[in-house]
Amino acid sequence: MNLAILLSGIVLASVAARPGSSTRLRRGAIVVLLLLMVAAPLVTNTTSILFDALTAMCIAYGWNVIGGYTGYASFGNVAYLGLGAFIAAGFMSRQPGHLALPWFVGIPLAVGIVSLVALAIGLAVLRLRGHYFSIATLGVAIAMPEFINWDFAFGPHSVVPKFFGGGRPLNFPLLPDAQVAGLTLDADRYLFYYLGLLTALIGIGVTVMLGRSKLGYALVAIRENEEAAETMGVNTTVAKSLAYVLSATLAALGGSVMGFKLTNMTTEAEALFSITNNLQMIIIVLIGGTGTVWGPWIGAFILFAMQEALRSLSGSDFVLQWQAVMFSLLVIVVVLFLPRGLMQFLRGRERFSWRVFLRNLVANRV
Amino acid sequence: MSAPITPPLLSIRDATRRFGGLFAVRDVSFDLAPGEILGLIGPNGAGKTTLVNLVTGTMRPTSGTIAFAGTVLNGMRPHRIGRMGIARTYQVVRPFANMSVRENVGVGAMYGAGGSTRSAREALRRADEVLELVHLASRRDDPAESLTIVGRKRLELARALAMEPRVLLLDEVMAGLRGTEMDEAIELIGTIHRLGIALVVIEHVMKVIVGVCDRVVVLDYGRKIAEGTPAEITVHPAVIEAYLGKRYAAAHARAD
Fold first, then answer.
1. Chain B residue numbers touching A228 (CB-CB < 8 A)
2. Which of residues 177-216 of A touch B (CB under 8 A)?
């Protein structure tokens, strides 16, 4: 069922993304897609994979701002994903010494703090261009979990004792099951799902607004030719910093909601800072199409549809072990043959054909 | 026209730019009056483009001052200089390849001298007007990368014009154009001039320099070797020497 939802989502998003289609058709597709997403938990047994897809999508929308629109390939956004999750957990935890804030206070607060951290880091790393920027951001990704494990600041006898748990798990409450019209709604299945959907909608909403704003045009101009953009009056420092912060904000939003669902975290929660999480957002954007509104949506659903398909095809661990290899191959294929992602074909400029495939093959000297 | 009576719009005093031991531009001084068309010529490597880079803030002068309408530009970031009203085109065109023609020009209208009060939508409408001016309106929705070299040169001009500059620096807009295309470009320079924009025209094609410029500054090895009307410049011994060599200059002098 989840596979069907994901596949329908891909088709509907593709219709909505095609500039060739009529406005009515595109609006219709968006409405049906929204209805599908809202109705999804009513028709499926578990919304877990959909939640994963939607939060990953929000994070991918974040990467799309800096990596897609601005053309600065960040390999460090996972740092803000993890930091957002930990700060939100620190605020929401019920352990002694913690504030036990409700989620709707703790998560926005954490996202705001991460944005400020990203601003400070962004001003430093954005002095670099190209590969040097990418490598510096990779450094940020590696340093962040160490920072959270820093005994001096966050250890048991530290400046801010145990804000991140000090090595012990941070527990915070599960969302209680909600009572709506006499029905009991399971938190895991409904509330977390809708929270995930909200993050994805914020991600695409921010992207739509960005694309129409002066800032959005400035970012694309920077991607296309930074020197020309600057000479034309674009304050590149400000524009790039805003892009970097916006990118981190969406990563923190997705991350803190992901962390919230874990309900219990330790500082050794390396999974949040994992390479998988770091690369996933990039893969999603690359598959769908960099610097586009619908690219991350389509990319996220394709990635998770593949995961779901693999899981339902075989319950054995064997396939799951090979999953990483298959995704790696997928990335290589996409980067080589679809450098602008699937949106390239949806835009109708080029049709997917053997000729395009061969041309890319030649262009890449494979 | 050798001594403008109106106060200069752009004033360059002893501008110098060193790269290690090499002086790309050395002690160059000249003024640009409002609405004037100034030619900037010199052999390859004379420092013309470096001088443009110094004016637009892309490079900082090692010494000397560059002032625009009474404000010293030294050390100012390029985007601030652009917003003050100085625009340029690039010798090697730099379109935003994956943006549409209209969006390319729109960025100029958003962030140039008139940009601060415009919304993105208004800027794109303004871009349409500028595209009419340079005869690119029919291509407005095409990606910039689909334009030919002539189209890209026009786009480059349109982007600069959308910034509503008071000074426009044209770095070899004629390079790569053929006869009729060049005539169209010369006509376009006239149109821009009538808008009241002062122009610095860097060019190798003497027909253009003689045809459109009020005054000409000649650079060689980073130094200003001559300044005057096009008629004066074409017979100036130092200019002939710089372009054609010492022996030719000596022969030319004897023939006179």
1. 90, 94, 96
2. 212-214, 216
Looking at the fold, whether B191 and B98 belong to one and the same domain comes out as: no
> What CA–CA distance (Å, rounded) separates A16 from B118?
30
Are A199 and A58 spatial neighbours (Cβ–Cβ below 8 Å)?
yes
In a mutagenesis test of the A interface, which of B110, B145, B157 is the best target, namely the one with the most A β-carbons within 10 Å?
Answer: B110
Q: Are residues B49 and B157 in the same domain?
A: no
Q: Is residue B201 part of a domain?
A: yes
Q: In A169-232, which residue ranges form alpha helices assigned H by DSSP? A: 192-212, 214-224, 226-231
Pick from B78, B79, B98: which is nearest to A224 by CB? B98
CA dist., res. B205 & res. B212, Å (int): 11
Q: Considering the domain boundaries, does residue B50 fall inside one? A: yes
What distance in Å separates residue A237's CA from the closest CA in chain B? 10
Q: Which residue in A227, A232, A344 has the most chain B C-beta atoms within 10 A of its own C-beta, making it the best mutation to test that interface? A: A232
Among B149, B164, B179, the domain boundary falls at: B164
Residue-range definition of the domain harbouring residue B124 = 93-164
What is the average per-residue pLDDT within A88-96? 83
pLDDT digits (tens, 9 = 90+) for A258-306: 988 887 776 556 678 888 888 889 989 998 888 999 999 999 999 999 8
> Quick check: is B147 in a domain?
yes
* Number of compact structural domains in chain B: 2
CA distance B224 to chain A (A): 25
| A37: DSSP letter | H
The answer to whether residue B237 sits within a structural domain is: no
CA distance B253 to chain A (A): 44
Does the interface predicted TM-score (ipTM) exceed 0.85?
yes
Task: Tell me the chain A residues in contact with residue B97 when contact means C-beta distances shorter than 8 Å.
Answer: 224
Beta carbons of B111 and A218 less than 8 Å apart: yes
Report strand pairing: B71-72 vs B22-32: unpaired
Do B132 and B198 lie in a common domain? no
10-residue mean pLDDT profile of chain B (256 residues): values are 70 95 94 95 91 95 94 94 96 92 97 92 96 94 92 94 96 87 90 94 86 93 93 89 77 68
Q: How far apart are CA A245 and CA B71, in angstroms?
A: 34
